[in-house]
Amino acid sequence: MRRLARPPSGAEQGAFFTSDLTVNEFLLVREAGFRPLGLVLGSSVYHVGIQLGRWTKNQELTKLSQAMYHARELAMSRMEAEASALGADGIVGVRLDIEFREFGSDVAEFVAVGTAVKADGADPGPAGTWLNNKGRPFTSNLSGQDFWTLVRAGYAPVDLVMGSCVYHVAHQRFTQALGNAGRNIEIEPFTQALYDARGLAMSRMKAEGQALDAEGIVAVDLRQHAHRWGGHTTEFLAVGTAVRPLRDDHVIERPTLVLGVDG
């Protein structure tokens, strides 16, 4: 908080900003009516516990799912607190990263980074604010170009929503593996396990968006992480930006095609 409150030498408070936006993104965010305030971040070094799964059973490892989700939530909430301290209306270009440190194979740092912005002429519509329905700055993983397009089309980002699922994929029995040797054949238990794990992650992301009264979720990114659990345990993470129309009667205008006749 001291870092955020102290302006650089020779700079007036509020006149200087830092940002991880590219030049094009910066200009488009300004064109959309928002002013960058500063680079904000949140970090959580988290011990991820151990949960054993049955060797021959497909199953979610719920304790690990909860740990991965909670650690990211801590990092996100601390990033949002920095943005609130700057008086921001939202955060654009949010990145969620995870790195396992040398503290141990089960200790990881979760980091959330983005650029805090303030509405500088952008019309929030009848709601009168760009804050989400939790009274906090909106968060978004949209690029500066996509953010500009969204706002110009009459939509507002509400929040970065996510769903996580850590899943144990059953091992094949030796006789099954031996019988499949040299054959082209679908391994149905593996297919079903990965299908179920992705479905759980996406349904949880969807539930977060619905709880925010969003119209939908854009820019969904479905990632798979093996981390350090071994080949048969994996995490699926679904991340996207929940959005809402600025006005209830909003209609997206279609571009008008103008034809000219020579002569």
UniProtKB/TrEMBL annotation:
Q: Which Pfam families match?
A: YbjQ_1 (PF01906)
| Superkingdom in the source lineage | Bacteria
Q: Which Gene3D superfamilies match?
A: Hypothetical protein apc22750. Chain B
Note the InterPro entries from the entry: UPF0145_dom_sf, UPF0145_YbjQ-like
Member of which family? Belongs to the UPF0145 family.
For this entry, the protein name equals Heavy metal-binding domain-containing protein
Q: Which organism is it from?
A: Streptomyces vinaceus
